[in-house]
Design goal:
Two copies of one chain form a homodimer. By secondary structure, chain A is an alpha/beta fold. The first copy, chain A, has helices at about 5-10, 50-70, 110, 125-135, 195-200, 205-210, 220-240, 260-270, 295-310, and strands spanning about 20-25, 30-35, 40-45, 70-80, 120-125, 145-150, 155-160, 160-165, 245-250, 290. Chain A is built from nine helices and ten strands. In chain A, the strands form two sheets. In chain A, strands 3-2-1-4-5 form a five-stranded mixed β-sheet. Chains A and B meet through strand 7 and helix 7 of A and helix 7 of B.
C-alpha cells in the first residue's frame, strides 16, 4: 500500500499524516513523532551508545508513539556517518566504515522496517540543510549549502530542495587549507591529513591548541580570525564549486561571538571581487549566516526527509 | 510546433533529426550540422573575433547547411564564459561580464532565434563533460567531473547526464591553493587572486614562469610535479565536494607527457587513504584520466546538448 492510498483509506490530509523522525548524532539521537505539517506529537532523547541498546529504544519509542497517535506513514532519518545515502544502493541506510564501536554495518531499515513505512535516510548536514531550506535561514534558495563546524566539519548542499551526492555524501571537512606553521604551529588532529580544515578548525583542534573553546577563551579576535581564515577556505571552495545562493554555518564552534562576521570578512578578501552576484552584496551579510532554526534544524530536517516519501 | 510534432510531420526518427551544434571557444568557433545520432553532415571553423563578424558567419553557415540537409530541430551550444546558462533566467544564453571585446551582452538567441528551433546553452566544460559522458571516457559515470587546464582552468560536473550549477556555472580555476614561495617564487598571473590555481598552473602561468610550455621544456619531472601538485588541490576538492565517479582532465597543459600520472600520485598522497571506494582503486588509474574524445569532446557535447531539447 503506498502512502497515498493509505492516506485515502484513513481519510487523512497529507499534513495530518504521521512521520517518524530521527536526528542521529554521535552522542545522542533526537527522535520525534510529528505530523507532516511539522507539529511534534512526541519527542525523546536516546543515547547513541551502540545499536544493541539504541535500536531497541528506537523501536520502543516509535511503537508507543504510534499506539498513542496512529500509524506512521514514513520515516525520515538525518544521521551521522559515514553512511550509505544512495536510495538505489542495496546498502541504503547502512553505516559504512565509522570508527564508532558497533555501528559499522548497522542499518536503520533493520529497526524501522517493522513499521512497514518508507524510510528516507540522509546525512545530518543534508538534513539540517533541508530543515533550514524549508523553515529557517535557507528559505527561497535554489542552491543552499549548510556547514557544521563542531566536533567535526561537514557540508550538505541542496539544489531545489534535494540533497546532492556523488558516489557518496560529501566530506568537506577534509579539504586541504594553507597552513602557516609559523603563525600557527599546531600540527592538526586529523588522523588522515593532520592539518586539513577539520584538523585545524573543528572543536577538538581548538581545545587541542588552546586548551579551551573560543568562547571560554573570551573570543579573542586574533584566535577568532585564525579559525575564520581556515573556515573561509571552505566557504570560497563552496562558492567556486557549487555557487550556492547562501552559505549557512552552524555547529558549536560557529556560536563563538564574532566568528561569523570574521568569516564574512575572510571569505570576501579571498574572493577578491571575482564573483559578482546580488546574493553576495553587501559584504556577504545575507550570504554567510547562522542557522535560523538553531539546534532544531536537525529534527526539522528529519521530518522534512520523511515528508519526501509521502505520495 | 514542438520538435516531437515536427518530427512526426516530417516522418523522421529522432536519430535522423538535425541538430545545429556550436563549440564556442575564445579564439574559434567549431560549428556543425549533425544528425541526432551524432553523424556530422557539415562542419566549419569561424574565428571568434566579435559578434559583429562571428554571428553573421554563424547564420550563414546554418542557413546554407539547413538548405542542403533540411530544417534544424534544435541547437546545442557549448560556450566560453562567463555566460548565463540558467534556462529559467530571462538572460539565458547571454554573455555576462567577459573581458572579450564586444561579447558582454551578446546572446546566442539573437542569431539562432531565426531558425525557430529550441536552443540549449551550456559552458564549454559542461559540454565537454557531456560529450565524454555520452561517447568518451565518462561513459557509465553517474557523477562525472571534466576539467580543462589550458589557457584557463574550468570544471563541469554532471549528475545523471545533467550539468550542475548554482546561481551561476562553477569557477573551479580560482580555488585557493597552498603556494610555497620558496619552492615556487612565481607570483601568479590571475588579475583577481594572483596565485589561485589558474594563476599558478594554467598555460600562461607556465609560460610566464619558465618562458615555454612544459612539453617544449621537455617535461622535466620537477616542473611537471610542481604543476601536478597545484592541479591535485582541485582534484581533491572535487572528490570531497562532489564525489564524482571519475575525473577527466583535458586541455593543452594536460597533454604534457607524465602530467596525468603525476596528478594521480599527488592526489592520492593528499587524500591519504581517507576516501575508500572501488572507483579509486588501484592508484587512481581509472579515476583520473584524459579525455576519450580528444579535441572532439566539445562539438560532441554541443550535439548532445541539442539532443536534450528534442521531445
Amino acid at each position: 500500500m503506498t502512502p497515498a492510498t493509505r492516506r485515502q483509506e484513513d481519510g487523512l490530509t497529507m499534513a495530518e499524516q504521521l512521520i517518524g523522525a530521527i536526528e542521529a548524532g554521535g552522542t545522542k539521537f533526537v527522535v520525534a513523532l510529528a505530523r507532516a505539517d511539522g507539529t511534534v506529537l512526541a519527542r525523546e532523547r536516546i543515547p547513541t551508545e551502540t545499536p544493541a541498546t539504541c535500536f531497541p529504544a528506537l523501536a520502543a519509542f516509535f511503537g508507543q508513539a504510534s499506539a498513542a497517535h496512529g500509524p506512521i506513514a514514513a520515516f525520515g532519518v538525518a544521521s551521522f556517518g559515514p553512511i550509505d545515502i544512495d536510495p538505489a544502493s542495496p546498502g541504503y541506510g547502512t553505516f559504512t566504515t565509522t570508527p564508532k564501536p558497533g555501528w559499522s554495518g548497522a542499518r536503520f531499515h533493520d529497526v524501522l522496517g517493522r513499521f512497514g513505512a518508507p524510510i528516507v535516510v540522509d546525512t545530518d548536514v543534508n538534513g539540517a540543510a533541508l530543515g533550514e531550506w524549508q523553515a529557517g535561514a535557507g528559505q527561497g534558495c535554489r542552491t543552499l549549502a549548510y556547514t557544521t563546524v563542531g566536533t567535526g566539519v561537514g557540508t550538505g548542499v541542496l539544489r531545489d530542495g534535494k540533497s546532492l551526492m556523488g558516489f557518496s555524501h560529501f566530506e568537506s571537512g577534509h579539504i586541504p587549507v594553507p597552513h602557516d606553521r609559523t603563525a600557527d604551529p599546531y600540527a592538526g588532529f586529523c588522523p588522515y591529513h593532520h592539518d586539513c580544515l577539520e584538523g585545524l578548525a573543528a572543536g577538538p583542534a581548538i581545545k587541542g591548541r588552546w586548551g579551551q573553546s573560543l568562547s571560554e577563551l573570551g573570543s579573542p579576535s586574533d584566535k577568532v580570525e585564525l579559525i575564520a581564515g581556515y573556515v573561509a577556505q571552505l566557504a570560497v571552495s563552496l562558492v567556486l564549486l557549487h555557487m550556492p545562493d547562501r552559505l549557512i554555518f552552524g555547529g558549536g564552534v560557529m556560536k563563538t561571538p564574532g566568528l561569523i562576521p570574521a568569516l564574512r570578512k575572510a571569505t570576501e578578501a579571498r574572493l577578491a571581487g571575482y564573483i559578482k552576484a546580488p546574493q553576495l552584496d553587501p559584504g556577504l551579510e545575507r550570504y554567510i549566516v547562522g542557522p535560523g532554526l538553531g539546534d532544531d534544524a536537525g529534527i526539522t530536517g528529519a521530518i522534512a526527509l520523511g515528508r519526501q516519501a509521502l505520495g
